[in-house]
């Protein structure tokens, strides 16, 4: 049985191998094994020094951004490699909230002036971001577990959700936001919030995206970090009380343009989340295999160890299948409407299974918490598959 150093599901370029090698060395140096880490993370929810090296020295924050805005112009496969290595180390960083969930929407929908002002700062790692969606279901907002075109995930313009109204003439940004979003990854520390909010009143209600710069938000922005299932994830509640905001891009002629952009970003995010979950599963598998090897050298009962090796061999097949599906999806142009969520479903199940084999018990807790947190935020796996089936028509008219 091969470990994470073994065969690749697809051929990697020399540049991709270098990304993997240098990031793995950096993360091994900074994070070490899960059992050796402090229980209390930094106030930011991640190590700022580590992020500075990841974004500056290794260039991960700019990896998939356009070259004209300081990016490296690479694609989903390269960012997937970075996410896989971050998952393997259970590393806490703004990579997911900033580079996977938020930056692609700024690049896709922002005006030229907005892109020029924001993307270079994201690319050099100086600006971290968070995507705030009302309703507490980021997966639904991204179209992963439900139809995001109905507006139900954002309150349908009725009471609740987040409302946007024009600001008084001369006010900064041109808009004021009022409402609340929960389960906002890195929402307590991000310098830029990308907020989904309703505007137009009930009759003409539509969901648009707004930029909130934390340093300009004033006292109306209250951000509360909550202890999550996984200490390497930092969910927060974001409260907005007439907070100045700027519309991302132009007000579209077709309001569905925004929800379509969210769904497109969600499909790519699903691939990258799958890569991260697969990396975590491989990390758990590595440690379980290392533990069995140590027991063999210490002369433990052969029968017990033989059974453990059989379980790990089956788990290896499950993890590698998830990994292969993930990288196939990463290399698709788009990717397709169902490949990303299906890869994520497979990866979440592989991570849950691998977490059950992780040893010592402290590691089991770390990997198990990551598995549970990812299922809560982006799953569950069954719903991801059901939504993919709805999109492809496999459930027939009953799905509608």
Automatic annotation (TrEMBL):
Start and end residues of each Acyl-CoA dehydrogenase/oxidase C-terminal domain: 271-355
InterPro entries assigned: Acyl-CoA_Oxase/DH_mid-dom_sf, AcylCo_DH-like_C, AcylCo_DH/oxidase_C, AcylCoA_DH/ox_N, AcylCoA_DH/ox_N_sf, AcylCoA_DH/oxidase_NM_dom_sf
Q: Specify the protein name.
A: Acyl-CoA dehydrogenase
Q: Domain Acyl-CoA dehydrogenase/oxidase N-terminal: where?
A: 13-125
This protein's record includes keyword Oxidoreductase: yes
Q: Which cofactors does the annotated protein need, by name?
A: FAD
Q: Does the keyword Oxidoreductase apply?
A: yes
Q: PANTHER family annotated for this entry?
A: ACYL-COA DEHYDROGENASE, ACYL-COA DEHYDROGENASE FADE28
Q: What is the name of the gene encoding this protein?
A: acd_2
From the UniProt entry, list the residue stretches annotated as the region Disordered. 27-46
Q: Could you tell me the keywords of this UniProt record? A: FAD, Flavoprotein, Oxidoreductase
Where are the compositionally biased (Low complexity) regions?
Answer: 33-43
Family the entry assigns:
Belongs to the acyl-CoA dehydrogenase family.
């Amino acid at each position: 049985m091969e470990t994470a150093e073994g065969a690749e599901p697809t051929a990697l370029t020399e540049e991709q191998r270098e990304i993997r090698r240098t990031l793995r060395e950096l993360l091994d140096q900074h994070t070490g094994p899960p059992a050796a880490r402090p229980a209390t993370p930094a106030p930011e929810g991640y190590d700022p020094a580590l992020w500075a090296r990841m974004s500056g020295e290794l260039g991960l924050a700019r990896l998939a951004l356009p070259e004209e805005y300081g990016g490296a112009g690479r694609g989903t496969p390269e960012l997937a490699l970075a996410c896989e290595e971050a998952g393997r180390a259970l590393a806490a960083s703004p990579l997911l909230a900033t580079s996977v969930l938020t930056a692609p929407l700024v690049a896709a929908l922002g005006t030229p002036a907005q892109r020029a002002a924001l993307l270079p700062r994201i690319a050099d790692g100086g600006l971290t971001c968070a995507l705030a969606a009302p309703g507490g279901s980021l997966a639904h907002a991204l179209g992963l577990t439900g139809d995001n075109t109905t507006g139900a995930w954002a309150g349908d313009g009725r009471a609740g959700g987040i409302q946007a109204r024009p600001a008084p003439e001369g006010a900064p940004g041109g808009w004021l936001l009022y409402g609340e979003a929960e389960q906002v990854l890195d929402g307590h520390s991000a310098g830029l919030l990308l907020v989904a909010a309703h505007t137009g009143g009930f009759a003409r209600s539509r969901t648009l995206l707004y930029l909130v710069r934390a340093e300009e938000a004033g006292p109306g922005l209250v951000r509360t970090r909550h202890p999550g299932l996984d200490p390497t994830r930092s969910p927060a509640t974001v409260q907005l009380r007439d907070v100045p905001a700027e519309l991302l891009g132009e007000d579209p002629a077709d309001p569905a343009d925004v929800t379509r952009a969210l769904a497109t970003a969600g499909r790519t995010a699903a691939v990258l989340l799958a890569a991260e979950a697969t990396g975590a599963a491989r990390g758990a598998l590595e440690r379980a295999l290392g533990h069995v090897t140590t027991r063999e050298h210490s002369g433990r009962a052969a029968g017990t160890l033989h059974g453990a090796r059989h379980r790990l061999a089956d788990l290896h097949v499950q993890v590698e299948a998830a990994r292969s599906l993930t990288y196939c999806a990463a290399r698709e142009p788009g990717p397709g409407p169902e490949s990303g969520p299906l890869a994520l479903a497979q990866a979440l199940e592989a991570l849950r299974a691998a977490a059950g084999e992780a040893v010592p018990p402290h590691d089991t807790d770390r990997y198990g918490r990551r598995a549970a947190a990812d299922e809560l935020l982006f799953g569950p796996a069954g719903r991801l598959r059901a939504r993919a089936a709805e999109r492809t028509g496999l459930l027939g008219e009953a799905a509608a």
